[in-house]
Amino acid sequence: MAKTSPGEFMRQVQAEMRKVVWPTRQETITTGIFVAILMTILAVFFLGVDSLFGAIVRWLLTLA
């Protein structure tokens, strides 16, 4: 692999940063709200699954 000088590396980084398309404020807000909603749904789902398995384990332990 060829070595690049620090100056060449910085020019390459700047060239790549010019290619970046940053999201708009509205896209960022929409994505954030979507992530928060999905996180809440998944948290409630896993709470339910965990509670169900906990109840099953407690029931099985009462049989022993």
UniProtKB/TrEMBL annotation:
<protein>
    <recommendedName>
        <fullName>Protein translocase subunit SecE</fullName>
    </recommendedName>
</protein>
<comment type="subunit">
    <text>Component of the Sec protein translocase complex. Heterotrimer consisting of SecY, SecE and SecG subunits. The heterotrimers can form oligomers, although 1 heterotrimer is thought to be able to translocate proteins. Interacts with the ribosome. Interacts with SecDF, and other proteins may be involved. Interacts with SecA.</text>
</comment>
<keyword id="KW-1133">Transmembrane helix</keyword>
<keyword id="KW-0472">Membrane</keyword>
<keyword id="KW-0653">Protein transport</keyword>
<dbReference type="InterPro" id="IPR005807">
    <property type="entry name" value="SecE_bac"/>
</dbReference>
<dbReference type="InterPro" id="IPR001901">
    <property type="entry name" value="Translocase_SecE/Sec61-g"/>
</dbReference>
<dbReference type="InterPro" id="IPR038379">
    <property type="entry name" value="SecE_sf"/>
</dbReference>
<comment type="similarity">
    <text>Belongs to the SecE/SEC61-gamma family.</text>
</comment>
<keyword id="KW-0813">Transport</keyword>
<keyword id="KW-1003">Cell membrane</keyword>
<keyword id="KW-0812">Transmembrane</keyword>
<feature type="transmembrane region" description="Helical">
    <location>
        <begin position="33"/>
        <end position="61"/>
    </location>
</feature>
<dbReference type="Pfam" id="PF00584">
    <property type="entry name" value="SecE"/>
</dbReference>
<keyword id="KW-0811">Translocation</keyword>
<comment type="function">
    <text>Essential subunit of the Sec protein translocation channel SecYEG. Clamps together the 2 halves of SecY. May contact the channel plug during translocation.</text>
</comment>
